[in-house]
Amino acid sequence: MSLLHQYGWYPHFEQHFISYQAQGLSAGRVTAIQGFKHTLISSAGPVEAMLSGALLNSRESWELPKAGDWVAFKGYEDQGIILEVLPRLNELSRKQPGKSHEKQVIAANIDAALILQGLDRDFNLMRLQRYLQQVSQCNIQPIVILNKKDLVDDPLSYEQQVQALGYQCPVILSSALNPSGLKEWAAQYLLPGRTYALLGSSGVGKSTLLNALLGAPLQQEGAVSTANSKGKHTTTSRQLAALPNGSMIIDSPGMREFGLTLEEDAVVVSHHPQIMALAAQCRFGDCTHQHEPGCAVVTAVKNGDLPELVYRSYLKLLREQYHYQANATEKKRVEKQFGRISKQVNAHRKNRKY
């Protein structure tokens, strides 16, 4: 098996690379980004590369190469120049942290996302649902890992709470300090040639878990505050690491915010299993499950069949969807108007005589 195929060189990328290969370019996968320096894995091994000026100035931030992307580059003696990003199979994204409504792509071409929560003070069912919601709408298979199971008396009760959310995804009880249990679930879920994104807040044990899977310390393990059980950032940039069994994991810094990036035609309910199951019984097909008569969701909340906490989470995500989509629509309107003005200016220049 070639080095590219070991790193996930699927037929999809091979097909889109044909025209670039005819131009004498090489293919590589982004394994790490440090400032302007991109580390690629190519058929000849690791390559340090920079973005071409044309690529950097013609794309939105989220369209530029991210960890996991496949790119076409021109190789030189000391470094490569990245000229194009091959079409992605998918992209793991979130709303840019803060007040911005821009999309931030965390990683690309992911087979599954490992969503890690610690069973100490980090466990938060609604935060977990937010991760599940966003990962699902990015067309990525979620796998929930409940870490630090040795710190609680009844870890199975936490597993049952997650399964009750209805996402039909694997839920793993784990302890990064238990090598035998770790190897058992890793052999089942981390498959050779597949790429996994590791997600979670600071202090949940991501670096400890990754180091245990690698069998060597790639990341320094961060301390957790004894006052609030909140961790400090150990990982400072995203990077793709190959595991001994041939699978790959993209690690990322701990995230305090994980906002939705639902596109215009997407709806929260389509990735919210408990709401979706009840929505089929609503009187109106376009029910928003807030104030409409005959709403099965509202009725279920009143009867106690749907937890109030889950319903409040749905409403919060619904508001986020509205604000994100409204700002995205406004941005498109402004860009369209700017494009129209640019055409008028160019036409005026051509018609003007000097």
From TrEMBL:
Cofactor entry: Zn(2+)
Binding site for GTP: N147, K148, K149, D150, G200, S201, S202, G203, V204, G205, K206, S207, T208
UniProt: Zn(2+) binding residues: C282, C287, H289, C295
EC number: 3.6.1.-
Acyltransferase as UniProt keyword: no
GO molecular function: GTP binding; GTPase activity; metal ion binding; rRNA binding
Residue ranges that the Swiss-Prot or TrEMBL entry lists as coiled coil: none
Keyword RNA-binding on entry: yes
Class in the EC hierarchy, top level: hydrolase
Location in the cell: Cytoplasm
A GO cellular component entry from the record: cytoplasm
Domain CP-type G residues, every copy: 99-258
Any Pfam family: RsgA_GTPase
Alphabetized UniProt keyword annotations: Cytoplasm, GTP-binding, Hydrolase, Metal-binding, Nucleotide-binding, Ribosome biogenesis, RNA-binding, rRNA-binding, Zinc
Gene Ontology BP annotations: ribosomal small subunit biogenesis
InterPro entries attached to this UniProt entry: G_CP_dom (IPR030378), P-loop_NTPase (IPR027417), Ribosome_biogen_GTPase_RsgA (IPR004881), RsgA_GTPase_dom (IPR010914)
Cofactor descriptive note: Binds 1 zinc ion per subunit.
Limits of the EngC GTPase domain: 108-256
Family: Belongs to the TRAFAC class YlqF/YawG GTPase family. RsgA subfamily.
Entry function: One of several proteins that assist in the late maturation steps of the functional core of the 30S ribosomal subunit. Helps release RbfA from mature subunits. May play a role in the assembly of ribosomal proteins into the subunit. Circularly permuted GTPase that catalyzes slow GTP hydrolysis, GTPase activity is stimulated by the 30S ribosomal subunit.
UniProt subunit comment: Monomer. Associates with 30S ribosomal subunit, binds 16S rRNA.
PANTHER family per the UniProt record, alphabetical: SMALL RIBOSOMAL SUBUNIT BIOGENESIS GTPASE RSGA
Identification of the protein by name: Small ribosomal subunit biogenesis GTPase RsgA
Gene name for this UniProt entry: rsgA
